[in-house]
């Protein structure tokens, strides 16, 4: 009987203890992954070397691999190990591109273990703008230009490359050229700071830091507004057939938008077309953009006005080139004016670089000067059945010349 009671008690206790597991919160149950010991972790970064070249290569590989703690084992070393170790560590940290770019400081300790030396290398990396593993190798300038253009298209803040080319290009000039070729898309020219690691080294890591006046999102919004404005101008003149009529409407399109203020900004195209701030450079560039969109032939001329840098345009009307100083015309509110070369007193430019704008060889006007005349425009057709008014003038006698009078408007004071 006692045996039966003891068995029953045992079964009850087992049932109770097994049921208790249901009351243990699941959050207390933890499964830990296997963790390597320090010696096991170091074994994955242990290399064997026998000379200075191998020693330097091992330290360089630690740097390029982002290894903070590495071990080098040395057997039958050729040379003076202590001196070579210090020289190799300095060479990698200060003269190798990866070390010069990424290493803050490096320490090493050499220990004799029976028949070999064991060197422990500890590396502290600095916080870089670009991880070493993401730096592309660039061997030719064309590849550099492509990557710079892509960075500018996205308004990127930094471009880092592993430069394998020998010559040192003018990075700011490359950026300036690409910016001026894409004024309708790029709203600001970045201010570029260039750092090379190591300084003067070949090869080297080059880091270009690009600063913009606004965020990338703001600049992209500006670019869209400029695109819309230029497109609207082309729609504004689309029903005009002659180049001169299109120029007239484009001039009206600009002057009716703002009363312009002469002011330099860091977003010159946007500032002129969307805010009314202008310089001779932005005015000439915007005029060229509008003319191009309207299908008109126009160039930007760089020169001097007096002793100051100045920009204006040359436009082609019916095969004849004319100067246009839109900045002067807009600020003076003098109306659109075409000029010949001889009218450009006080302006200086490379005459070989731009089309000539000579005055036509014809009889001088009553004022004694040849003024640019408006290109011929088709006359308005008369009503076919409309009666003709009799002429009040006395017809010329046979053989008598009738004085000619010009009906073409002078462009100099056109509004």
- Given helix and strand content, the structural type is alpha+beta
Would you tell me the overall average pLDDT?
A: 82
Task: Tell how many strands the DSSP assignment holds.
Answer: 14
CATH topology of the largest domain: C8orf32 fold
**Domain tally:** 3
Biggest beta-sheet profile: 4 strands, mixed
From the alpha carbons, calculate the radius of gyration and give it in angstroms.
40 Å
CATH classification class of the largest domain: Alpha Beta
**Beta-strand content estimate:** 15-25%
Q: In what order do the strands lie side by side in the largest sheet?
A: 1-2-4-3
Number of helices: 12
Distance between the termini: 126 Å
Low-pLDDT segments: 8-42, 377-415
The ordered H/E elements are HHEHEHHEEEHEHEEHHEHEHEEEHE
In CATH, the architecture of the largest domain is Roll
Write down the overall geometry.
elongated
Proportion of helical residues: 25-40%
Task: Explain briefly what this protein structure is.
This protein has 415 residues and is of the alpha+beta class. The protein has twelve helices and 14 strands.
């Amino acid at each position: 009987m006692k045996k039966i009671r003891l068995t029953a008690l045992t079964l009850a206790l087992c049932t109770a203890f097994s049921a208790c597991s249901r009351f243990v919160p699941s959050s207390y149950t933890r499964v830990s992954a296997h963790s390597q010991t320090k010696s096991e972790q170091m074994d994955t970064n242990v290399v064997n070397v026998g000379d200075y070249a191998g020693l330097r290569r091992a330290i360089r590989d630690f740097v390029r691999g982002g290894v903070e703690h590495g071990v080098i084992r040395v057997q039958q070393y050729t040379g003076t190990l202590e001196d070579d170790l210090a020289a190799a560590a300095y060479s990698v940290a200060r003269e190798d591109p990866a070390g010069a770019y990424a290493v803050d400081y490096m320490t090493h300790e050499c220990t004799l273990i029976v028949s070999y030396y064991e060197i422990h290398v500890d590396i502290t990396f600095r916080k870089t703008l670009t991880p070493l593993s993401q730096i592309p190798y660039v061997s030719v300038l064309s590849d550099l230009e492509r990557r710079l253009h892509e960075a500018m298209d996205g308004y990127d803040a930094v471009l880092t490359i592993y430069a394998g080319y020998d010559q040192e290009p003018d990075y700011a000039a490359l950026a300036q050229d690409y910016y001026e070729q894409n004024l309708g898309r790029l709203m600001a020219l970045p201010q570029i700071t260039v750092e090379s690691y190591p300084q003067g080294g070949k090869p080297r890591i080059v880091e270009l830091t690009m600063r913009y006046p606004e965020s990338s999102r703001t600049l992209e919004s500006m670019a869209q507004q400029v695109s819309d404005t230029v497109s609207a101008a082309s729609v504004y003149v689309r029903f005009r057939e002659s180049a001169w009529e299109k120029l007239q409407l484009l001039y009206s399109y600009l002057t009716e938008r703002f009363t312009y203020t002469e002011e330099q900004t860091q977003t010159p195209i946007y500032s002129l077309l969307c805010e009314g701030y202008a310089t001779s450079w932005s005015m000439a560039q915007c005029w060229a953009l509008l003319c191009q969109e309207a299908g008109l032939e126009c160039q930007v001329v760089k020169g001097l006005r007096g002793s100051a840098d100045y920009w204006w345009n040359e436009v082609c009307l019916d095969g004849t080139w004319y100067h246009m100083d839109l900045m002067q015309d807009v600020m003076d509110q003098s109306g659109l004016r075409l000029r010949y070369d001889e009218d450009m007193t006080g302006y200086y430019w490379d005459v070989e670089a731009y089309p000539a704008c000579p005055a036509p060889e014809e009889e001088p006007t009553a004022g004694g000067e040849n003024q640019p005349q408006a290109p011929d425009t088709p006359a308005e057709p008369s009503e076919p059945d409309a009666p003709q008014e009799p002429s009040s003038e006395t017809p010329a006698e046979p053989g008598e010349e009738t004085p000619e009078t010009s009906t073409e408007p002078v462009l100099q004071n056109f509004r």
